[in-house]
Amino acid sequence: MSDLRPDTGDMQLEGQRDPLTGLPGIEAVRARLGEWIGQGRGSGDGPRLHVLLLGLRRFDALNLAYGTSAGDAALVEVANRLTHFAASELDGPWIAARSGGSNFLLVANETCSRQRWQLFAGQLADLVSRPIVTAGGAVLRLTPRTALLRGVGGENAESVFDRLGQTIANM
Predict the structure, then answer these.
(1) Three-state secondary structure of the chain
(2) Predicted TM-score (pTM) of this structure
(3) Using an 8 Å Cβ cutoff, are 3 and 89 in contact?
(4) Rounded mean pLDDT of 115-123?
(5) What is the C-alpha separation between 111 and 95, in angstroms, rounded?
(6) Interstrand relation of 49-56 and 144-150 (parallel, antiparallel or unpaired)
(7) CA distance 52 to 127
(8) Whole-angstrom Cα distance, residue 20 to residue 132?
(9) Tens of pLDDT along 24-56?
(10) Backbone φ and ψ of 122, nearest 5°
(11) CA-CA distance, 128 to 115, in Å (whole number)?
(12) d(CA 154, CA 47)
C-alpha cells in the first residue's frame, strides 16, 4: 500500500478536467503517457506502463430507469472509488481519467507483473460493482468490465491509444 498521490499532470493541463467527475481529461493522460514513455526509454527495466480501461455495461438503461442525475451520481462515485483504490494499491505514479460516457482510464507507471495487474483490475471491478445508494434512495448496481494493456518496448503514446481504441471497439 502507498500514500502516494496520483500524478495529476502539468498545471497547463489542470483546466482540462471532466466537469462531472473532476478527473483529468484524456489529453492530460496522453501527455503524461508520452512523458513516461520518454523517461522509460533506455532504462532497460522492461515494460512499466500498465493501462486499465473500465467501462460500465448497460449504463444507458440505468439513465433511463433512474434518470440522468442518478447516472451522474453513479459516475462520480465510480471516479471516487477508482481514485481511492489506485491511491491505496499502487506504489508508483498513476493518472486516471474519464474517457467519455461510462468509460474510465487508469494508467500506472510502475513495475508490475501481469498477474498483479489482473488482480488489481479484478479487485477494482469488485469494488465498482458494490451497490451505490443515490440521494433519492435508489440502489444502483453497476456491472463493470475491464480491459488491460501493457506498454511494450518501442511503443509511443499514439500506438498505446490506438491499441486502446481497438480494445474499446471490441468491448
Answers:
(1) CCCCCCCCCCHHHCCCECCCCCCECHHHHHHHHHHHHHHHCCCCCCCCEEEEEEEECCHHHHHHHHCHHHHHHHHHHHHHHHHHHHHHHCCCCEEEEEEECCEEEEEEECCCCHHHHHHHHHHHHHHHCCCEECCCCCEECCCEEEEEEECCCCCCHHHHHHHHHHHHHHC
(2) 0.86
(3) no
(4) 96
(5) 15
(6) antiparallel
(7) 15
(8) 17
(9) 988 899 889 888 887 765 555 555 889 999 999
(10) -65, -40
(11) 20
(12) 10
Residue with C-alpha cell 501527455?
31
Please name the residues in contact with 68: beta carbons below 8 A apart, sequence gap of 6 or more. Answer: none
Beta bridge partners of 97: 105
Tell me phi and psi for residue 87, to 5 degrees: -65, -35
C-alpha cell at position 107? 494508467
The confidence score (pLDDT) of residue 5 equals: 43
As given in the structure block, the three cell numbers for residue 7 are 500524478
Amino acid letter, residue 80? N
